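Protein entry
_____________
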Amino acid sequence: MPAERAVIPWPELKRSLVAILRGIRPEEAEAVVAELIDAGFEAIEIPLNSPEPFVSIGKAAKFAPPGCLIGAGTVLRVADVDRLAEAGGRLMVSPNVTPEVIARAAARGMVTMPGVFTATEALLAVDAGASALKFFPASVLGPAGINAIRAVLPPALEIGAVGGVSEADFASYAAVGLRTFGLGSSLYRPGAAAADIGKKARAVVAAYDTVFGKRS
């Protein structure tokens, strides 16, 4: 029989929100991450198609408190996982399901969140040892579509809605039992002032707490 894959569990965050900072530049990283953490975000993703992403990830990882998950999105190759680990990243998010990438990230102690859209992709990711699934684009599937696929997935598996999702959608996803979200353009746009991002982040956190309450 094949060896059982390592699975790093999705952490018990006070708010299961992932800030997606696509396009952030290294010189912006510390100020933006500081605003997000101060607002109450505990998971931050810097996609690898951003300028010098590993520099930004390294800065964020050094700055963030120990309980925060700092990592990369758009991770496509095993070599990227290794560079992410060297930069201090603990979160690996991908747009697809590549079992070797998920396995390498888990072996390096990372929380993993591959992107899926169908039941076939979701079950492949589960078999590869994913910590959580990122249903993307969630706006196409909607809460009902994601909930239908969940019927064939392990009940305890963390499910995230990403893509076309904002704080205005929290209640509709909560109605089908989802509480994990990745927020990109609704929260962050390249070049935006850190203070403005912080203001948006606080509004998101307030909306999340209204719908889900806050874990102590």
